[in-house]
Amino acid sequence: LPQRLLCSALMCKAVDIPDLLDRASQRSDKLHSLSNMLALELESDLPAIGRVTMPRPAMCHTSSLLTPNDKEQALQVSESTLMSLARSLLKAWQYPVGVLSNSANLLPHQSKASISNKLQELQEHSRNLEDGLDVLSGKMGPTAQILSTLPYRGGSDLGQDKMSKLINFNFLLSCLRRDSHKIDSFLKVLRCRAANMQPNLC
Amino acid sequence: MMKNDGGVRVFWLLLLFLLYTRGKSFSVPGKPTLTRCRSPEKETFTCWWEPGSDGGLPTTYKLYYRKEGSEKEYQCTDYHTGGKNSCFFNKNDTSIWVNYNITVVATNALGQALSDPLNIDVYFIVEPNPPENLNVTIQNDKGWPFLRASWDPPTKADTRSGWITLIYELRIKLEEEDEWEIHHVGQQKVFNIFGLQSGGTYVIQIRCKPDHGFWSEWSDDVQVVVPNYFPNKRSAWVLLMVFSGMVFLILSWLLHLNSRNLKHCILPPVPGPKIKGFDQKLHKSGKSVDAFKSLEVPDFPHHTFSKSEDFLVEYIEVYVPEEQELMLEKSNNLHNGCLKSESSVSDCDSGRGSCDSHTLLLDKSGHQTNTQDSQTDEQKHGEALQGENLAYTHQDMVSPDMSAGRVKTWPSVFSPLPQNRSTVDQTSSIEIAKQHCLSDSLLPSDFLTPYHSPPGHCTREHLGSNYWEFDFGNKQPHLTQPQTEACHQIQAHSEININTGVKAEPAAHKFPTPRSNEYVEVQRINEEDSVVLRPVASNYDKLFEMQQGEDYSRVKGVDSDNVLLLLQKEAMEEEMNMCPCEQLTDTTGAHYTRFARSPEKPTACTHPTPQPLEERVVNGYVDTATMFTMPPY
């Protein structure tokens, strides 16, 4: 039954979807791991004053997107909607991740080289996942194709002085960390819904 | 009075109070600290705090929180479920991907203290409960036991819907040991353990972790005893000993049987010498003469070599020095048949002496060559190769084309002679004479053609055989023997028939012997236009080191371009040490030296690149070092 839900009326390759979802989940898992590591690495160096002046998480540019906030809500959302949400979030971060990656070298941080590397890796994973989800959503129906625009208004640089650069970097990474976890969770929920044949996985 | 009583009462109470509390100080409570918050299943969470000092007074703690995007302040409703100093957030109060700002307030009679706020989000505080229902059983795999462990995820974690994804880790050790063996399991809920100790008691534990979160605690121990699957350790050793003993016996017996073969294998006998036709037994018996007799090849020229005044010459080397070659190149109508060596700088072959001899030229200068007879010689030349008189064959071929003294043979020979060239005829004759000194490769191809057209089996190869004949007498109507005979002769002998009048210099010079490194030089040309040869003096040998057969090429044949094809021998590079060598480079890349090509720059003492011979050169070769190549028309 869930497979039927996942397939559109015209084209349905049911056997592909669980496998694709599995791969997508693995990619999103890696994406979140990277953003988690980065956020923690930068947070440790932030002075107390920075923590205080950091913008609230509600200020993340993706906070306008309404997403399920607990399990009951999440399990009630349709697969296509979940996919659409995941794709919208991913797309919203394409540009900011580029900004982060470009600014990494200018960051007043001692391990900026490793940060820069991780950001580049993250960017790559993000692109791959985006492509994969485009393919998947094509198999899932029209609702999955809807993309909400979540414009980023932070500008191409992260601030003029050293402290504001650091603060903005931290803030962006904390937002990314959360959103990447959302994407990962949605995909894993979708994976388990599609994997009726593989009860071992869920 | 009542008033007095009340005041006195208060006074006494205060006094009592003061007395009671003497020695203690009261203060506002110390600041509490929120230590951690944890969510076991991403649906609820609990926060714990550490109280500060209570200030000596009973203190109460209250937890307040704000959720992201709202200013409303909430208060914790459950302080008991999580234990002391905890606050439990139930499902209704828990939201994920929402930032919580939590504060704990400690209050006592004197005041209150606020903790530092803690910002958390449920998604990064997940720590599940340990897995449940760990079950370990002993299975059998073809008589070898192994353990199979299985478990369930913690009750509250909803892995089935995919809301939470858990990975597991198992650890095992023998009861008496201290160190655990850890196995990473992944998402599955079953695991097999092999390599067990017979009769040992094992302890197993399991734990889990969400994909992005904290490890749970280890589950409770599960003990299992592995049965003895080695029936009797001692009997096993006995079996092993018996088996190895048997194997050892068999091996030694095999070794004994094959001792001789092994000996041959390990220490092979030294091979003895093997010479074809050589009978070792005969040799051993002492009759060495007989032994060597079998090695004799019939018709070996050695035996038939007459010790008369006939000279056996295997080859005559022709040499063209470089400077003259350049001069020669300039002339345009070189006859096709006139051959010229490519690099005629020098000649490592002592054959140079034959035509380098001044006497020849001086003798010749007075003579006029009779060019008219040349025609008849054409035929003879072919035969003359085998038989006798060479010489003016070249003249035949060359003379029609020789308008202005061309080619060229030993320019150096002629250098002292210019004064002798009073006439063109003389010049030409001298030049012709030069040509006659050429070695066999100089034979023009068309000269050769009549020779080759015959039905005889005398193929071109024979031309290259041992000897050179050389005849300056064009008038002599030497009829050659039938070609087959001649061929045979060629093959068998190397002979030069020197016309009458040749006198070998007596013993002062060494007689050339077949296969020796001695050469003949042209002593003079007698009145009959025959070349008088004499063996080269030993000093020539010094000058021209010559390896037997190494500097010569065998004529392979004549190709369609009327080009004489020579075989270039591999070993040619060895020849030249003392003198600059002429080198005929093989422009075709084949093993032939093509004489129709334009001559290349002579290189000084260069060694020709060794090229594998297609045919082994045996004896009597044309000295390619002294070859002339004819420039193309």
What can you tell me about this protein's structure?
Chain B: Its main location: membrane. The complex is a heterodimer of chains A (202) and B (633). With 202 residues, chain A is mainly alpha-helical. The relative contact order of chain A is 0.23. Chain A has 8 helices and no strands. Helices cover 25% and strands 19% of the residues of chain B. In chain B, helix 10 crosses helix 11 and helix 11 packs across helix 13. Classes of the chains: A mainly alpha (202), B alpha+beta (633). At the A-B interface, helix 2, helix 4 and helix 8 of A face loops of B.
Would you summarize the structure shown here?
Chain A is mostly helical.
Unreliable stretches covering 5 or more consecutive residues of chain B: 330-348, 360-516, 540-549, 570-620, 625-633
Radius of gyration of chain B: 58 Å
Q: Overall 3D geometry of chain B? A: elongated
Q: What's the shape of chain A? A: elongated
Strand content of chain B: 15-25%
Distance between the termini of chain A: 16 Å
Report mean pLDDT of chain A, rounded to a whole number: 86
Q: What would you report as the Rg of chain A, rounded to the nearest angstrom? A: 18 Å
Q: What is the straight-line distance between the termini of chain B? A: 164 Å
pLDDT below 50 for ≥5 consecutive residues: which ranges of chain A? Answer: none
Give the quaternary arrangement of the chains.
heterodimer
Query: How large is the count of helical segments of chain A?
Result: 8
Largest sheet of chain B: 5 strands, antiparallel
